[in-house]
Design brief:
67 residues; mainly alpha; 4 helices; 66% helix
């Protein structure tokens, strides 16, 4: 199975579902992503980060993986 990176659109949905009070596993099911991926983003949001900050950090790390 091929790993696909999160898009800004998906991060926006994660943020929206988080603000609406959805549990991370519910969001994961809706987006067809693993629970851990969603938990990582939700934890970042709970710590006061923004989706834009997460995406920038994610993009920097993604450039190191060879994908």
């Amino acid at each position: 199975m091929t790993y696909t990176h999160l898009t800004m659109k998906e991060l926006g949905w994660i943020e929206t579902y988080y603000e609406l009070g959805y549990k991370a596993y519910e969001t994961a099911k809706k987006l067809g992503r693993s629970n851990q991926t969603i938990y990582n983003v939700v934890t970042f949001l709970k710590e006061g980060g923004t989706v834009c900050d997460y995406f920038e950090r994610y993009r920097k790390n993604k450039s190191k993986c060879g994908a």
